[in-house]
Input
Amino acid sequence: MPKFASAAMIVNAKSRRGQDLFEQACKHLDGLPFRVDAHAVEDPARLEPTLKRVLAARPELVILGGGDGTISGLVDFIKGTGAAIAVLPLGTANSFARSLGIPLDIAGAIDVIARGELRRIDLGMIDGDYFANCAAIGLSPQIAENVPAGLKRWFGRAGYLAWAAYEFTRFHPFTLIVGEGPEAQRLRVVEVRIANGRFHGGTELIDAAQVDSGEIVVQAVQGHARRRLLRNWVNGVLRRAARHEDTIDFTGKSLRIATDPPLPISIDGEVLAHTPVTARIAAGVIDVMVPRS
Output
């Protein structure tokens, strides 16, 4: 197992239980064979400045505590520093941790830090923005753009799902264009997933995507009615083979993506781009602690 001379932890403590989860994590850190410089950040605007200050001390390992959006938002700054990352899955879906096989409880995740191994993985890119797991076009960014501030903080997953159900009634299919010029493919879709990992929204949906495959996967859920999206999600949750009947996968190192009409893109839960974009893979650019194989 890797031996780290220095390590730091940054936890997004904005959530309802953020401070409590931070304190739990600190207790478990006492069992690690190295000291961890721990920081709880309650204001998300302070996450980047805190990370930059931490990185100035050149830690060999940076532990990121939060959801998929927190990890994707910070991984840009860690890539290229030589530091490895570890994940404390404290979010709603924790899709990145699921793709890596990391336990979703604090004790299990820290045990991976203590006993696991380093794995060299890819990062996805939307134009120049790196992301860890999955970007989406369709219902997911519509929810993210319109969700009332503090809903997840005060009402948790149940409140978020209720809002998602409301947005589903207002959602409309759209046209996806993959590629450029006469070779471009056009199809009517209800969702697009741009994936570096198999999970989206906490559900295993993109079987072809792997965190170290060297390719980006663009999965389109085809259909002219929004019920096709609901059917695909239900089949995905239940792991039915029928989940593949509605989807088509495009793979490559770089894919040009447009939509009609132009639409927002959520990157690991945060709306950070709008179509058209180029989706790319940054192959083998960062080390992450994972369970020992």
